Amino acid sequence: MTTLGITINGRAYGPMEVRDELTMNDFLREMLGMTGTKFGCGAAQCLSCAVIVDDRNGTSYTSPTCVVSAASFDGKAIRTVEGHARNGELSALQKAFIEHFAFQCGYCTAGFLNEGQVLLERLAKQPVTRAELEKTVAEALDSHLCRCTGYVKYHEAVRDVILADAPRYLAANK
Ligand code: FES
Ligand code: FES
Hints:
By secondary structure, the protein is α+β, with helices and mostly antiparallel strands. The protein is built from six helices and five strands. The chain has helices at residues 24-31, 92-99, 109-125, 130-141, 151-164, 166-169; strands spanning 2-8, 11-18, 51-54, 60-63, 77-79. The chain has a five-stranded mixed sheet with strand order 2-1-5-3-4, with helices on one face. It is globular and about 50 Å long.
């Protein structure tokens, strides 16, 4: 057994004892009932299980949860799909996913949403030029698999959120 204390979507959980072999995916889904985080391949290949990890240095990144122990998240702050809406209002990215009909079965959506959000936050700090945008979005989403092949629509949804607030996300006059 190992001690786990973690912050999820701004709320503290634990410290509590968890089995060493408990995965983060099972911790979220089975112990906390947070089923928005999906379990797909179970082999760190599809990223449908990805959550956002907020590093203490102010940067964020996504991590799979299917093959990663819950205990390894001790002391960390993460965000899941359940944390994107504010006061019942969907985030800009969530709205764009709906407007673009980006998903079909929705199994991969939480992973794409988290990855897209990390990209938005990165661009707000480190804008890219308009010319670099398509490549930047493609590279950010590249590791996520969608069995319903919604890749183009996810790409367009993320890109359009960025273009809708270009002064925030894109380098000026480029
Ligand atoms: S379920 Fe974790 S990467 Fe596929
Ligand atoms: S919408 Fe079905 S796997 Fe992506």
